[in-house]
Amino acid sequence: MTYRTLHAGRSDNPRKLTVEPPDGHSVSYAMLGRDGSRDIVAIKTSYKHGLDKGRAEQHYYTALTLYDDLTGLPVAMMDCSRIGSLRTPAVSALLARECAAPGARSALVVGTGTQGRLALPFLLTTLPELDRLMLFGTHPEGLAAVRAHLHAHAPGRELEIVTDLRAAAAEADVVVATAGAHTPAAVEADWLGPGALSVLVGHGLAPSTLHRADRVIATSAAQMQVTGTDMADAAGELRSVDAEFAPVLAGVVPGRGSDTERVFAYNSGLVVTDIALGHRFAQLALAQGLGTEVPLWR
Amino acid sequence: MTYRTLHAGRSDNPRKLTVEPPDGHSVSYAMLGRDGSRDIVAIKTSYKHGLDKGRAEQHYYTALTLYDDLTGLPVAMMDCSRIGSLRTPAVSALLARECAAPGARSALVVGTGTQGRLALPFLLTTLPELDRLMLFGTHPEGLAAVRAHLHAHAPGRELEIVTDLRAAAAEADVVVATAGAHTPAAVEADWLGPGALSVLVGHGLAPSTLHRADRVIATSAAQMQVTGTDMADAAGELRSVDAEFAPVLAGVVPGRGSDTERVFAYNSGLVVTDIALGHRFAQLALAQGLGTEVPLWR
User: Which residue in A123, A279, B85, B93 has a CA-CA distance of 20 to 30 Å to A201?
Assistant: First the structure.
């Protein structure tokens, strides 16, 4: 719905603002968007501090402020971290629904962080016929967490921990790469079988999967140019995008051209998806009387 | 201080994001900045609704969120409307200190809204030798409010309400134009005397004051290109800026070249000035135990 409205030109999702001090110890973002179907304007901000330190010493704050653009009144300000962690796998699942080959049965998730843990539960909502669920990861506690999440959301489904990434990739109809920047995993294009869909959320795919794909889809071509530079080829070039996901989801452009095409999909977050999910959460929270009313404006 | 740090390249003040629906009934902005002397990162947001309605039916919300970039912790989120209304006349007063002719004694304020009411009290802090304080306005309650503000801040100072704008402009060493977009006031360049400084905050100066000035200063040349389009000449062109205010305040560039130059100064708000004032207010408020602690991030 969010993507369809964006495609219809009734939403706005301008590029984000970024501020970093010269020493790079922190980074801040501000994003502004408008959802033309919900009539919601929202600002998403994030501030990350301690990039020069270990993960335990880092601080990360992200907030979403929603205004009702019909009444002109503020709706809520909310922590955006959970929203951000949920909207990305939801979009990966939609990408899989639109771009996976018909009859896809096997999925491989690379990475066991927040995104790795949520990938399979969401994938199963759009592709319930998946019957082989593979996971590649290097952190034992992460592997256990992915299994726990899967069993909580889909009791009875089996998780297959793989160690031969190449063999697993060859057998996967859908690969979702969610690993961190330091992952040893790098699935190559020629490991993939015919018809494979590879979705890049974090890391775990080699640039060849982009450059040798039969079709490239991105949630935002402009954002991919900014944040996807690690996928550049030897000449420093990024392959251009065949279609953005909004027209694919709107049914205007096909997600794939044939059953055997290898499709590469780049999933970077759009603030309009934060708005959609954040507004739903805010409605539920307000209905339950959650939150604190703050006298910010008098 | 804020401008000096900006000039020294230790602060960041990127362009703002804007979102408007196609029918223009609302407008939203997001600004992100970093103050390199205070080590504060801040996001300023504003949302205005009801632009198609009368002022009484409009909604306007603006908020400033501050992060301490040394500790990485949030400082406060605060209403930014009062901050925004104070930082602008403070900058006008600094512009007057740096760019008015030596021995300036007379000031003319055009407009009686929020900015008109604060203009003279601030001007008197940087130019206490001003002894002729003129005001042009069209709203009786606005004229009374300007007088009340002046007397509250500078008891004993007289305010001269002028009706002949041209004659008043000819006698003013400093003109500060703060009127609303629908003002009938439009001071022309050839009304001004030698050495006059004209500062544009809102409306009230004709484009000739910019185009025929001997020197043009702007708080931000880039912002002036975006927000100053009503000052374009008949060909739609804006005269380029001779200097930004940051190097003037830093003492690197002179505010004027001679006692008789006519200087035009464009005062548009920079988020770094919101940060400076907002941080000071937040420190004072926290010291007094004001505000509400909200469990936004857990």
Answer: A279
